[in-house]
Amino acid sequence: xKAKIIDLIKQHTSFEIITHEGPDEDAVGSxxxxxxxxxxxxxxxxxxxxxxxxxxxxxxxxxxxxRVSSPDVSLLLDVSDxxxxxxxxxxxxxxxxxxxxxxxxxxxxxxIAPEKSSTxxxxxxxxxDLNIGISSAMATNLYLGLFGDTGGFVxxxxxxxxxxxxxxxxxxxxxxxxxxxxxRKTRSLSFFHLLCSVMERLFFQEGICxxxxxxxDMLRARARPEDTSGIIDEMASLAEAELVILLKExxxxxxxxxxxxxxxxxxLNTARAFGGGGHAMAAGFTHRGRAKALIQDVIExxxxxIEKG
Length: 309
Ligand code: 5GP
Ligand code: MN
Fold this sequence. Notes:
This protein is an alpha/beta fold. The chain has two domains: 2-184, inorganic pyrophosphatase (n-terminal core), CATH 3.90.1640.10; 189-308, Diaminopimelate Epimerase, Chain A, domain 1 (Roll). It contains eleven helices and eleven strands. Strands 6-7-8-9-11-10 form a six-stranded mixed β-sheet. It has a five-stranded parallel β-sheet with strand order 2-1-3-4-5. Helix 2 (25-40) runs parallel beside helix 3 (119-129), helix 4 packs antiparallel against helix 5 and helix 4 (136-149) crosses helix 6. The longest helix is centred in the first third of the chain and has 16 residues, at 25-40. It is globular and about 55 Å long. The chain starts with a helix and ends with a helix. The site of manganese (II) ion has 6 residues, from loops.
C-alpha cells in the first residue's frame, strides 16, 4: 500500500494533511514533517487540525502553508477512524497513514502499520522512499512524534528501530535535550491543581487505579485541556497498578476516558466497550455524560480484562 501512496504523491500537486482532534506530539510532528517534505517537492500543502494545537506543542518549526482551494489528495495522519476528525470532511482521494491497531483500513488508499511506534516513524520512511532529504525542521518534528508516542522511549513500542531512527533524527538536526525539556519541564500550575483533585479521590482496588476530573475542577484550576496531559502517567507509575483509568470532563457533558495497562490488552478492551479504541496498552474513548456517574462502570469493565494476581 505504501508504494501506491508514493505513486499518488508523485502524480499530484495539491494536498491537504488532516490529523486527529486533540492533536498530540505524533499528530503535530508527523503532519508538520510531511508538509515540509511535500513542500520540498514543490507541492501545495495545507494542514488541517480539527481542534487547535496546544500551546505546549507549538515550539517545533511550522511549514509555510498554501491556500489549497481544492486538494487532489487528503492525507489523514495518525487518524484511527473518521470520528477522530470530527467536523472535517476530507476532499479528493483519501489516503490514511496510521499505526493504530484498531484502524480498520478506511479511505481510498491506506497504509496501516501497527508494528510502527508512531505515525512519525512511518512518515520518515515515506519521505526517505520519496527521496526527500530530511531537513533539520523535519527531523525536529519527527523526533517530537517519536518521543511523544513512545512516552520518551519508555513504552512497549520502543523498538531497536526507534533508537536507530532517533539517532538518524539527532544527526539530521533534532535536539533531544531541547525537545525533552520542552515536553517534560513545562508543566503549568493548573496541572498540579488538577493532580491534587485526582489524588484526593483516587480509587485503588485489585490492580485498578482510577480517578476523574470534573468540569468544575477544570474551572477551579483555570485549566486548559492540555493541562490534563501527564496525570495518567503519574497514576500509571504506581507499582501495583495493572490498569489505570482517568476520566476527564473537558466540557460539562462530555467525558474523555484514558486507559493504560501494564501488560496485555486491558486498556484497549475496556476502551472498546465504551466505543473507543487505540493501542493494546494505551487507549481512549469519548462518552456523553458525567465522569462521576460513569467511573464505576468503567472500573467494572476494566476488572473483566485484567489478570488478577
Ligand atoms: P489518550 O489517553 O492519550 O487520550 O489516548 C490514548 C490512545 O487512545 C491514543 O493512541 C488514541 O489514539 C486513542 N484514543 C483516545 N481517545 C480515543 C477515542 O475517543 N476513540 C478512539 N478510537 N481512540 C482513542
Ligand atoms: Mn500516534
